[in-house]
User: What shape does this take?
Amino acid sequence: MQITLITACYNSAGTIRTAIESVLSQKGVDLEYIVVDGGSKDGTVDIIKEYSTRSTSSTWFKYISELDKGMYDAINKGIAMATGDVVGILNADDVLATDDTLAHIASAFESPEVESPKSIASMPTSGL
Assistant: This one.
């Protein structure tokens, strides 16, 4: 199971490094990490570029930097790029609690004891 994590940011030079490092430190998970920057002018893109070459066999790092219509537009751009089975959002000023946070999430989704929709298309629409 692959997890896609999306971070939308704009002028986040003061916090983006710790967010990225918390994602790239994840172990035991197939991860796609997408950072969508809204055209920052404060050095955020330079920090993102430092990390963009750190893709490994289990972690794929992608980013774009272009003007957008705000955080939700940026998140939607990230979702459009996502290829993971599970998609999550990490804000630019947040960090993942431990280096196995996403492995625990993947394990929960793979557990036969946990019922979860695999996609919105498979969710029932009658009675909504």
Notes: Residues 119-128 have pLDDT under 50 and may be disordered. The helical segments are 16-24, 44-51, 71-81, 101-110. The first strand starts at residue 2 and ends at 9. Residues 31-71 form one domain.
